[in-house]
Amino acid sequence: MKYKQIDIIGGGCAAFSLARLLKQVCQNNINIFLGKNFNFQKDHFWGFWKNESNESAFKNANHIWMKWSILTYDSKTVLSSEKHPYCVIKRKKWLSFCKSELRNNKINYIKQDVIEREGDLIANNKKINSDLIFDSRPPEIPSDVLLQHFQGYVVTTEKDVFDDTTVILMDFRCDQSKGMHFIYLLPFSKKKALVESTMFSKKIEKKSFYKNQISKYLKKNFDLTSFTLGDYEEGIIPMHQISIKSPNSFNIGTRGGAVRPSSGYAFTFIQKQAFQILDQIKKKRNINTEIHNKVDLFLDKIFIRVLDKHPQLAPKIFSRLASKLNGDEMAKFMSGECSILTKFKVIFAMPKVPFIKSFLFMLNSNAGN
To answer: Residue 193 belongs to what domain range?
Structure first.
């Protein structure tokens, strides 16, 4: 099936990832509504484990590691995978790649904001009307939901301090008084790393909190008191399933439920969503943008409730999870591709009482809906 015109709203990962694939099924124009404030130069890192859906990103990755670790005051677990390494790609590099894939197609980049009015999507006071419309505008974050919020910097030092072979996925050896808190560290070299202070809580802290936590962490664990702060990263991700339905468009990206609620990882799921849409169009099936299965989403709700009610258990929960899986299993688990056996390994690794209580609560909640 070929469409004469396809409109995509948004200028982020979901919009460009889908556009580069839909060139195969569009006869004429693909219009990408970037928004008035779109800035191509804005940059940050997207992390993922390599799999079939993100092969192009893997080939263009800024950095790749075969090992990653989870640390607490009581334990250190290092996992490794050659088949599914941990990768990061910068936003600007991925968008540039997607644009290069579209170079020989009829693409219109439109720097106009899109608003919704009585069910219609409006740009420059005109209704957007094409064969297919995909909307990736950031959704409103529901109130009173658990948030993953982080701030960090690329840190450069004068001496060799970082182990550049291993990502620190989560290090819980930091202040836990305000909720679940860990340090995420991507070592680009022995002297350079992205260091982020990440929290799972309902309250966003002041910028000084994250910066101070990073400084304390580097001093305590790397004996670093002198370093240079480079590129700045920040983000707020709802740990809640957001999947908005619209009468005249298909929602993609965060708006379309691509973010995994329990982890905040989105890049791989956005790629899966894009390939799923392309496959459905080619096979003349109804378009369905849902990318997570119902069992995973139900388990995520149980998991998130435990973290919300018992944040002090987080170090134990994640260290147990890491200790029960090998690198391939964890990579597949985090990418939504694990086997039933791996799911059971994760379930049996969890503290029983709080998870059973959360399970019963979610059952009652679903029964009442």
So the answer is: 147-238
126 and 259 part of one domain: yes
**Whole-structure pTM value:** 0.94
Q: What is the largest CA-CA distance in the chain?
A: 60
Q: Are residue 255 and residue 218 in the same domain, yes or no?
A: no
**pLDDT, tens digit, 9 for 90 and up, residues 267-295:** 999 999 999 999 999 999 999 999 999 99
Label each residue of 97-124 as H, E or C. HHHHHCCCCEEEEECCCEEEECCEEEEC
- Residue 115 forms beta bridges with which residues? 122
pLDDT in tens, 286-332: 999 999 999 999 999 999 999 999 999 999 999 999 999 999 999 99
Assess whether 94 and 126 both reside in one domain. Answer: yes
- My answer on whether 53 and 176 are in the same domain is no
Report in angstroms the alpha-carbon separations of 156 from 164, 189, 193, 212, 295: 13, 9, 7, 16, 43
Same domain, 17 and 130: yes
Predicted local confidence at residue 333, as pLDDT: 95
With a cut of 70, which residues of the chain have pLDDT below it?
A: 1, 27, 367-369
Determine, yes or no, domain membership for 288: no
Question: How many percent of the chain have pLDDT more than 70?
Answer: 98
Q: Is the same domain home to 221 and 174?
A: yes
Which among 304, 279, 86, 276 is positioned nearest to 201, based on CA atoms?
A: 304
User: Where among 260, 282, 304 does a domain terminate?
Assistant: 282
**Looking at residue 283, what is its pLDDT?**
93
pLDDT for 142 equals 85
Closest CA to 3 of 73, 106, 146: 106
Same domain? For 49 and 122 the reply is yes
Encoded tokens for 260: 């995994």
